[in-house]
Design goal:
alpha/beta, single chain, HAD family phosphatase, 11 helices, HAD_sf, five-stranded parallel β-sheet
Length: 202
């Protein structure tokens, strides 16, 4: 028997949004004076999980990227550039969201995202209107794939893990959610999300 779906739980980065463009990284590199920031071992990523979890302030995070103290105006500029580079949306995912929403499905979002970025998007971005519930790591003090963040979201939604379809691009997040009982879809660059949901009987 196919489990009942009470909620669709979407990740943001690389699911709703696409990757930053090369030009975005180039502009951020010019602003910081650092090179190859896109690389997974760069200063941009080195403390990103702490930033996503709310363990670092924007000044602390951008200071770690710069390798020196960051002034308030500089932090504000870099925060704006960072939000802009992750704001490119995936039209195929938006089409699926429109279809699900028009069919009356319950939609929620769970994203590893710094607090100020999440508040900026919540206030300014039309895509948030697809969702009844928004969960951001920087506001929760937890990051995926910590099982506690999934437990908290499921409890707040009032749903069992089996009643939630979780869509994310990170295999570790998917693995943790699946182990907890969530229905899962690993979203990669070539994923046909409509087909994957149909495979689950959705």
């Amino acid at each position: 028997m196919t489990p009942r779906t009470d909620w669709y739980l979407f990740d943001y980065g690389m699911v709703i949004s696409t990757a930053p463009a090369p030009e975005d990284w180039r502009l951020l590199e010019q602003a910081t004076g650092r090179r190859e920031l896109e690389s997974g071992t760069s200063p941009y990523w080195e403390r990103r999980e702490d930033f996503d979890a709310g363990r670092l302030t924007p000044a602390q995070y951008w200071g770690s990227v710069l390798g020196r103290d960051a002034g308030p105006d500089e932090v504000e500029t870099l925060e704006g550039m960072d939000a802009a580079q992750w704001a490119h949306l995936n039209p195929r995912t938006l089409e699926v969201l429109e279809t699900l929403r028009s069919s009356g499905a319950n939609l929620a979002l769970l994203s590893n995202m710094p607090d100020r970025m999440s508040r900026r998007y919540s206030a300014e971005s039309p895509w948030v209107n697809h969702f009844s519930k928004l969960y951001f790591s920087g506001q929760m003090g937890l990051v995926k794939p910590d099982p506690r963040i999934f437990d908290r979201v499921a409890a707040d939604l009032g749903a069992t893990p089996e009643g939630i379809v979780f869509i994310d691009d990170n295999p570790q997040n998917i693995s943790t959610a699946r182990a907890l009982g969530f229905q899962t879809v690993l979203h990669t660059g070539g994923t046909d999300l409509r087909a994957e949901l149909a495979r689950l009987g959705r």
